[in-house]
Amino acid sequence: MNQLQENRSGGNEPMEATCDNCGDLTRIKYQRNEYPRGLQETYFKCESCDKKFSCFVTDGKVRKMQKDIRKEKDTLVRYNMQTEISTRMKELKRKVNRGI
Ligand SMILES: [Zn+2]
Fold first, then answer.
1. In contact, 28 and 47? CB cutoff 8 Å
2. What's the domain count of the chain?
3. Domain ranges, residue 79
4. Is 49 inside any structural domain?
């Protein structure tokens, strides 16, 4: 799904991606799932085969860090926070994909 960014032409045109499962081009319509303990998953479904693609999963802690990072001026601190956020989001995503 590397073409994700390239297909963006500025405006509000829908993004498209090639489905890893069936190989068809699908429009990306983000949807949100709520899980217990404040977990929120952003995902889209392939319009051809209905396969779900998880984009990112956040919890209260991640969302707080994302808020804090915007206020942080120090590049190195920001970098470290960003790393922490991605690690945690990766973990949460694994959790959600396992069915929690
Ligand atoms: Zn598909």
1. no
2. 1
3. 16-98
4. yes
Distance 27 CA to ligand 1 centre (A): 11
Ligand 1 centroid vs 20 CA: distance in angstroms?
Answer: 7
Q: How far is it, in rounded angstroms, from Cα 34 to Cα 42?
A: 9
3-state secondary structure of 84: helix
* Residue-wise pLDDT tens digits, 8-66: 445 566 799 999 999 999 999 999 999 998 999 999 999 999 999 999 999 999 999 99
In a domain, 59, yes or no: yes
The reply to whether 65 falls in a domain is: yes
* Ligand 1 midpoint to CA 13 (Å): 20
- Tokens 């956020």, located at residue: 85
Residue 70 within any structural domain of the chain: yes
The pTM score is 0.74
